[in-house]
């Protein structure tokens, strides 16, 4: 399913805000915007300027290249945003690692999942 740019940006802002344990009001204070505006951005009811997006990214300590990296793009339930926060954390741990290390970790994860799945089938 395709989502709009506004939905993508809103979902990502919500995930990043929650990963920092900020309320909409707290993020708004850091960025200099009212809480209703932050909520409207997250719900894709308002468009965001690049200047404002840059301020939001600074407030949540997120470089632009990470903000626009591939992401599920779905409206996130509580479970999904928690997973997204974990994915972001794993991404942070791996981004500066050599490709060989990342491939080795990917293989380990695959082996672990095979083991988990085989135990779940019993």
Into which percentage range does the β-strand content fall? under 5%
SS field, number of helical segments: 7
> How many extended strands?
0
**Global Rg:** 17 Å
User: Overall pLDDT, averaged?
Assistant: 86
- In terms of per-residue confidence, which ranges show pLDDT below 50 for 5 or more consecutive residues? none
SSE order, one letter for each helix or strand: HHHHHHH
This entry's quaternary arrangement is single chain
**Helicity level:** 55-70%
- Cα(first) to Cα(last) distance is 35 Å
Structural class: mainly alpha
> What does the largest sheet look like?
none
The coarse silhouette is elongated
Topology diagram in text:
Elements: H1 5-19, H2 24-31, H3 35-42, H4 50-59, H5 64-67, H6 78-94, H7 99-121
Helix pairs in contact: 1-6, 2-3
What does this structure look like?
With 122 residues, the chain is mainly alpha-helical. The protein has 7 helices and no strands. The radius of gyration is 17 Å and the shape is elongated. The protein starts with a helix and ends with a helix. 16% of the residues are buried. The mean pLDDT is 86.
């Amino acid at each position: 399913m395709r989502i709009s740019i506004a939905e993508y940006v809103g979902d990502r802002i919500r995930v990043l805000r929650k990963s920092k344990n900020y309320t909409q009001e707290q993020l708004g204070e850091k960025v200099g915007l009212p809480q209703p505006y932050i909520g409207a951005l997250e719900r894709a009811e308002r468009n965001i300027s690049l200047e404002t997006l840059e301020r939001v990214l600074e407030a949540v300590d997120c470089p632009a290249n990470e903000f626009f990296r591939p992401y599920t793009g779905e409206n996130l339930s509580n479970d999904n945003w928690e997973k997204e926060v974990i994915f972001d954390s794993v991404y942070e741990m791996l981004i500066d690692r050599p490709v060989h290390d990342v491939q080795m970790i990917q293989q380990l994860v695959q082996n672990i999942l095979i083991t988990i799945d085989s135990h779940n089938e019993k």
